[in-house]
Q: What sequence folds into this?
């Protein structure tokens, strides 16, 4: 057992030593892939993801070469040397040779054979899919991709144009096809881009070398073109060229074709350099019209090149380059990881995420900070609102809520294998999947278990954010994925404004959940916040209705307030408006379908409040809208009105259909109380509306008995007359 442990330690040490160099390097950044908006390049090596490595074993089709294979990397460096040679030799061949000598011809054949071999190898090199960011090992897809990209240019560059030129009768137009080989200079450019992002190499040195090579190549090409222009004239007119008319001291270039190649090239290069630097001394100058035109074009391009060189040098001095900022940040991270011995896997994830951030430029949102808030909101809505609308969590939410969420979200990208949410953690961030593929897994899964694929537009971490409970599963990216993130605090701030939409979100969360989760959702802090906001807004609505402020009431309703929300008394805004007699507010609430028959905690409806306070206009509006006067205990209500001697209120209640013979808890009718209190006018109103003098209470007493006890003879007489009248009417009804 101890021996096996030691062997495992030795293997780990070997693995660590093999990856020491990787720890300090920045992998190749591929500039060909595009994002979903065709805007940002995502340029990271597939080797940074162990997920891709697992795919490489399962998806391989025959003989396929991985881009990070060490033999292929060596081959790439070998091809780079030939690309440098070809890029510099092509202008030289075009200008100085019309038919290569034997030694150079054999070298050219060897170079073209090498590039032909590279074309064949390119059909077997796996590539990174620009959308899923997984390595593609399907041979047909690899071949199709290469055929659509650089194959035609590469194959044309490998043709023996020198042989074709001789076979076609030395037609000059054929020689122009040599310039196709300059496409190989792209490999040199890619090489310098890799060097710039390699933290092991001094960035200032790399940039200076690159700028020097650019300048050297431009002057080299210009020198070749200068010489070519001189050779295109007939021999009789060669004295009318810049080199044919050149006299340097006692040395004459009149018969320049017979001067050795090195002298001619150096002379042409000298002419190109002093012309580019615009410090010509006059000894070499354009002679004919074609040379003058080319010099003008060359100097114009040199001004642009000079500005480019100066701008780059300035950026180096002030450290304003984006690449240099990336290198500095990466260098600090590498030092931190090595000092704390974070390990290979964590180090790869950190470096991969930083590189993705650099390449995708999703942190460039800071560039928009100087724009006005309204303009930034428009940009966010344009970019993210279509995705937010598709999130099931926000189904049924208002457009205003969706727009505010779109402003609050932040865009993030995750590489294959990167974890978005860890099992057992409680997060404060909610994610929405826009593009890509995510999967749910358990940290300790049984063998053969299949991860759950999360569909596009789904929300991640919603239960954890709302209920503050740990995540049940780990969510990770299975391919390059773009997500939108919103912080819990920002979400709560929006919900506090649009709390009606917060209730919709809670309902969406409850849908299809288990009982224990439903209970936790309803008891969550977010649900409590929504209830508090609803109560506060209900109070504000009632205050606006009570104050008669129609403008404020309308604004609150448009902001999402429910006009049927009640306060702690159970009263709605319509109750308060009816009680205060505000006809315009009552009319507005009726128009927005407020509940006109809603009862408060005492069983009173808005129509009852209007009648009680004598607002006939409001009562008419409510009755026209279909309101019915429904009193929970009509007997008690009428008896209380009689006890308070509220004659008008009593008359309005009776006029709206309340039964005058309704009884209270002692089985007393309103007429009992009126007779006992000696209220003559109240008794008259009750009798006129059909009150019975024969009604008895729980002690068997009638209103007439109560009047006799009170000793009001006038009232007794009124009730006796009413008794005779009711007896007569009853007898007539029987007959």
A:
């Amino acid at each position: 057992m101890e021996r096996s442990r030691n062997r495992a330690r030795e293997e780990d040490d070997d693995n660590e030593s093999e990856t020491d160099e990787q720890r300090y390097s920045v992998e190749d950044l591929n500039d060909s892939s595009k994002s979903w908006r065709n805007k940002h390049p995502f340029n990271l090596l597939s080797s940074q993801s162990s997920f891709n490595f697992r795919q490489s074993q399962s998806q391989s089709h025959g003989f396929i070469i991985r881009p990070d294979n060490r033999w292929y990397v060596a081959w790439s460096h070998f091809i780079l040397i030939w690309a440098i040679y070809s890029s510099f030799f092509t202008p030289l061949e075009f200008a100085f040779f019309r038919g290569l000598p034997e030694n150079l011809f054999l070298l050219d054949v060897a170079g073209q054979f090498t590039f032909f071999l590279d074309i064949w190898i390119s059909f077997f090199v796996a590539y990174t899919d620009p959308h899923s960011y997984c390595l593609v090992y399907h041979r047909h897809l690899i071949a199709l991709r290469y055929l659509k990209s650089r194959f035609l240019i590469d194959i044309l560059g490998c043709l023996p144009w020198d042989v074709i030129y001789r076979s076609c009768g030395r037609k000059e137009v054929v020689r122009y096809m040599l310039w196709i080989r300059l496409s190989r200079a792209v490999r040199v450019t890619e090489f310098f881009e890799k060097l710039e992002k390699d933290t092991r190499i001094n960035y200032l040195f790399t940039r200076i070398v690159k700028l020097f090579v650019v300048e050297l190549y431009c002057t080299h090409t210009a020198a070749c073109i200068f010489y070519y222009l001189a050779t295109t004239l007939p021999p009789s007119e060669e004295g009318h060229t810049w080199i044919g008319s050149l006299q340097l001291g006692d040395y004459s270039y009149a018969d320049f074709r017979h001067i050795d190649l090195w002298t001619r090239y150096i002379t042409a290069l000298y002419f190109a350099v002093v012309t580019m630097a615009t410090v010509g001394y006059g000894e070499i100058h354009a002679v004919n019209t074609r040379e003058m035109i080319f010099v003008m074009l060359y100097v114009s391009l040199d001004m642009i090149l000079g500005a480019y060189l100066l701008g780059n040098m300035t950026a180096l001095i002030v450290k304003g380059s984006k690449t240099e900022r990336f290198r500095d940040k990466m260098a600090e991270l590498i030092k931190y990881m090595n000092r704390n011995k974070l390990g290979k896997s964590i180090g790869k994830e950190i470096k991969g995420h930083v590189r993705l951030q650099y390449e995708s430029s999703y942190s460039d949102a800071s560039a928009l900070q100087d724009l006005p808030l309204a303009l930034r909101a428009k940009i966010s809505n344009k970019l993210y609102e279509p995705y937010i609308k598709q999130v099931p969590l926000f189904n049924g939410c208002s457009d205003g809520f969706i727009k505010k969420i779109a402003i609050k979200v932040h865009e993030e990208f995750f590489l294959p294998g990167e974890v978005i949410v860890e099992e057992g953690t409680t997060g404060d961030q909610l994610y929405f999947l826009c593009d890509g593929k995510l999967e749910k897994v358990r940290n300790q899964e049984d063998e053969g278990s299949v991860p759950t694929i999360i569909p596009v537009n789904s929300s991640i971490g919603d239960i954890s954010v709302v209920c503050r409970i740990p995540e049940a599963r780990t969510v990770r990216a299975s391919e390059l994925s773009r997500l939108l993130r919103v912080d819990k605090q920002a979400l709560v701030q929006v919900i506090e404004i649009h709390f009606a939409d917060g209730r919709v979100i809670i309902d969406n969360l409850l849908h299809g959940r288990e009982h224990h989760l439903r209970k936790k959702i309803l008891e969550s802090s977010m649900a409590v916040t929504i209830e508090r906001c609803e109560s506060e807004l209900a109070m504000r609505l009632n205050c606006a209705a009570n104050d008669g402020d129609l403008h404020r009431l309308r604004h609150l309703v448009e902001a999402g307030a429910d006009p049927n929300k009640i306060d702690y008394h159970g009263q709605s805004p319509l109750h308060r408006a009816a009680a205060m007699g505000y006809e315009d507010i009552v009319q507005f609430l009726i128009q927005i379908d407020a509940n006109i028959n809603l009862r408060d905690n005492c069983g009173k409806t808005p129509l009852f409040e209007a009648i009680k306070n004598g607002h006939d206009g409001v009562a008419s509006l409510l009755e026209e809208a279909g309101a019915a006067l429904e009193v929970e205990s009509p007997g008690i209500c009428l008896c209380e009105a009689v006890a308070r001697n509220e004659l008008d209120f009593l008359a309005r209640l009776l006029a709206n259909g309340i039964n005058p013979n309704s009884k209270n808890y002692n089985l007393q009718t309103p007429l009992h109380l009126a007779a006992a209190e000696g209220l003559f006018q109240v008794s008259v109103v009750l009798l006129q509306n059909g009150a019975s003098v024969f009604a008895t209470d729980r002690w068997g007493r009638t209103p007439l008995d109560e009047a006799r006890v009170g000793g009001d003879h006038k009232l007794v007489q009124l009730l006796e007359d009413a008794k005779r009248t009711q007896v007569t009417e009853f007898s007539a009804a029987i007959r």
